[in-house]
Write a structure and sequence with these properties.
Elements: E1 4-5, E2 16-23, E3 31-32, E4 36-42, E5 44-50, E6 53-57, E7 61-65, E8 71-78, E9 85-92, H1 94-103, H2 108-116, E10 121-123, H3 125-138, H4 143-158, E11 163-165, H5 176-193, H6 200-207, H7 211-222, H8 226-244, H9 249-255
Parallel strand pairs: 1-3
Antiparallel strand pairs: 2-9, 4-7, 4-9, 5-6, 5-8, 7-10, 10-11
Helix pairs in contact: 2-4, 3-4, 5-6, 8-9
Length: 259
């Protein structure tokens, strides 16, 4: 079973991405990405697959996953039937985390935790309960306070005695590098040319796939269509220019590809 590559788009000018996932069910979705992932699962019971480890999860499940570690959750039941399955997911890059450790020697414990995360780390109920309020706050805080709060959460996890590694070995499924390179080429092109009319033919040539394959791979990796992704890029860039410049709305819209 080969995992698919998920493209995680951390916003420009930020170091992490927080997603409060609330769904009627968590469908099995075997995937990987180059970012670290911290996930707190709430009001949900089911099965969690991390690398070569298969095991149950319950309300308050807290795990830290390293880069390129395949993983999936499959929900089976709700703790409170009146609610929904919920997961607070935080992605951050290895570059950002590594820079923290290199800059501050006091964070040696965090460096050790990041190394352990290569196989996935599960934290015990005591640590998960203690950090639950802080992790929930991550989704509500402004960006500057969020990144400080995230560092506090990671430091607390680095000192947690009730943690265990999930996967003894980290699989390297054939095709992972190829899929990531395909998406990287497509995303790089879109980020460089979003201000122009977008056609699928150049993207298909970059990825060496047909248009139908490109749309399927792109939607699976980004959870949106190519056109929706480009629109989000344009809106994000326009908002940045509106804040940072005194240019008119029509000029900014034209520069960002809106015609």
């Amino acid at each position: 079973m080969q995992p698919w590559y998920e493209a995680v788009s951390i916003p420009e000018g930020q170091s992490c991405l927080i997603y409060d996932r609330q769904l009627p069910a968590f469908a099995f979705n075997w995937h990987y990405h180059p970012e670290f992932e911290l996930t707190l699962t709430l009001n949900s019971r089911g099965t969690r697959l991390v690398g070569g480890h298969l095991g149950p999860y319950d309300d308050g499940d807290l795990v830290l996953l390293g880069p390129d570690l395949p993983h999936a959750w499959q929900s089976e039941s709700l703790v409170d039937p009146a609610g929904v399955h919920r997961a607070i997911v935080c992605w951050f890059t290895a570059g950002w985390a590594g820079a923290l450790v290199r800059l501050m020697p006091e964070l040696g414990g965090l460096g050790a935790l990041l190394g352990e995360a290569a196989g996935g780390v599960q934290f015990g109920p005591a640590t998960a309960a203690a950090l639950r309020p802080a992790i929930l706050d991550l989704a509500r805080l402004p960006a500057d306070r969020r990144i400080v709060a995230l560092q506090g959460v990671l430091l607390a996890l680095a000192g947690a005695p009730d943690r265990s590694t999930l996967a003894a070995t980290t699989p390297n499924p054939e095709g992972m590098t190829r899929d990531r390179q395909r998406m990287a080429r497509v995303l790089d092109w879109l980020h460089a040319h979003y201000d122009r009319p977008i056609r699928l033919a150049p993207l298909c040539a970059l990825a060496h796939v047909s248009e139908s394959q490109l749309q399927r791979i792109f939607r699976r990796s980004t959870r949106m269509s190519v056109s929706a992704y480009v629109t989000r890029l344009r809106v994000g860039r326009a908002c940045t220019l509106l804040i940072r410049s005194d240019r008119g709305l029509s000029a900014i819209a034209a520069d960002c590809g809106f015609t």
